[in-house]
Each structure stands twice: as structure tokens, then as C-alpha cells.
Amino acid sequence: MHIDFTKYQGAGNDFILCDDRTGELSAQLTRETIERLCNRRFGIGGDGLMLLGQGAEGFDFRMIYYNSDGRESTMCGNGGRCIVRFAHQLKLIGSTCRFVAIDGPHDATILDDGQVALGMNPVSAIQEVGEQDLVLDTGSPHYVRFVPDLREIDVVTTGRAVRRSPAFADQGINVNFVESATDGLRIATYERGVEDETLACGTGVTAAAIGHLYRTDPLASGNFRVGVLARGGQLAVTGNRSGGAFTDLRLIGPATFVFSGTIIL
Ligand SMILES: N[C@@H](CCC[C@H](N)C(=O)O)C(=O)O
Q1: Which interval of the chain is the signal sequence (predicted)?
Q2: 2-110+255-264 with 126-253: one CATH topology?
Q3: ipTM of the complex
Q4: How many CA atoms lie less than 13 Å away from 3 in the CB half-sphere?
Q5: In this structure, are residues 246 and 212 in contact, taking their beta carbons and an 8 Å threshold?
């Protein structure tokens, strides 16, 4: 089996991308194969793998996302931004597009500096857990814990403990630790399906920005822009809010070509 692939990364969240408009790959790829391709020693290496599939009427393409454990998962924000650059590389789109992912339609724009602004679904359900933590779904489920100093957090040990706790063990959850600084937020994320810390998580960054605004003032309204510094780079979230209802969300950040090749299995 020959697989042509391209690797992209968005703020250090890295992905294997394959053009599967014919549908041949999705019919052949097993969970074990995806896991092996994502393995950093035995494969290409990546936090996840995405197939660019044929879009339905009105969409440029379909995004199918697998975590590095080989299982298909929910929305990936950095993956969404990377697949837009991949579609552009394939000359499938110009600087704007509309695609469909597991959580529904998304629109995106490639900005003049090459960054990608990705439309995210509205969020209005925010669950408070204790005094510091929130749970919300930004296309993927996220647990957000606000901490005074990110440097003091053991992200893997604490993130894994939350992810494996009885409330989340079955479905899993991504766990974000967020510090509020004068120039924006800083974040570290333990990702479900990678079962490790990754260098950035786009749906996690979106959850952190929303959580921060909600916690600071649950009743405020208006447009916003929140900068979020992940371990692997700077992202931003823009949108509009009316109390706990967040709309017109856009996740903005880099999406960069790494290399391409063919792997023979
Ligand atoms: N890296 C992602 C999130 C990918 C999905 C996640 N691991 C899950 O299974 O929920 C992002 O950038 O959003």
C-alpha cells in the first residue's frame, strides 16, 4: 500500500494530511495503520491524521479527523486550519473556502500573512465545576482549569487524572490549564486521543478564550479578541458575545507546511 501524504503543523500541533477525494484511502485505512503512521518512531509522526474527502453540494471538501490513537474524533481546530492550507496547496480553493467537518459546516480565510482564520461553531453551554474550572464543547469537549502560574502545573499527570476521572473516562475530554497574563492568556493542553500534552490545541484555545471572558464577566456583551499563547505558538480567538452566548467565533493562527512524501506499508 502506497500513501502520499503532506505534513502540516499549526502552532506545533502536527498532522498527516492525505487527499482522499476518491474515497479509496478511507476504505483501506485501519485504526492500527493510522496509529502507526502517527507514531513518531515507527511512522511519519503526528498528533493526528486527516483525510480531505469530497465535499457535499455547497462545500469545497470534507474534513475527516483521526487522533494519533487511530480513532476518528470530534473537531480539531488546528487541524481545520491546516487542512485549509492543504486544500489551497492542492489548488482546490482560493483564499476562502467552506468545508464540512464532523461538527458541521466551517468557513475559513487564508490571510495575507498565511495565517488561517477558521470559523468555529457558536457556544452557549458552559458548565461550572467548582470555583476554578469550566467544561464546554467547542467542537470537541474541553475541561478548562484557570491557574495562577502555568509553570507550576504538571500538565501530563494532572491532565491525565482529570481525563481518566469517572466523569470523563468513557467519552474522554481534553484538559486545558490556562494562566491569565496582562498581554493575554497562556495555555497548556493534555489531549484526549493523543493521551499526552500537545504543543497547541485549537478547540482548547477557543474554549480557554470563551472561559476567560465568561469568568471575568458572565453578563458582558460585544465583540472581542483574545490572544492565547500555546507552547508551540501564538493564536487568537475573535467573536461576539451576549452573556454566555458566544457567536461569530474565529480561531486565527499559523498553519505551516512541514514536508510531503510517500510511505509504503
Ligand atoms: N488538536 C485539536 C483537537 C483534536 C481532537 C481532540 N484530541 C479530541 O479528541 O477531542 C485541536 O486543535 O482542536
Answers
A1: none
A2: yes
A3: 0.95
A4: 25
A5: no
Q: Where are the domains of the chain?
A: 2-110+255-264, 126-253
Q: Report CA(194)–ligand 1 centroid distance (Å).
A: 9
For 2-110+255-264, which CATH class? alpha beta
**Can you tell me the distance from the alpha carbon of 50 to that of 73, in angstroms, rounded to the nearest whole number?**
10
Residue 201 is among the residues annotated as catalytic for this protein: yes
Spatial separation of the C-alpha atoms in residues 17 and 1, rounded to whole Å? 16
Ligand 1: which of 140, 173, 206 to mutate, judged by most atoms within 8 Å of the beta carbon? 140
Q: What would the pLDDT profile of 168-222 be if each residue is shown by its tens digit?
A: 999 999 999 999 999 999 999 999 999 999 999 999 999 999 999 999 999 999 9
Spatial CA neighbour of 69 closest among 18, 30, 123: 30
CATH number of 126-253: 3.10.310.10
The predicted model scores a pTM of 0.97
Cα distances (Å, whole numbers) of residue 47 to 38, 77, 171, 175, 220: 7, 13, 19, 15, 36
The verdict on the CB of residue 137 being under 6 Å from ligand 1 is no
Q: Are 28 and 41 in contact (CB under 8 A)?
A: no
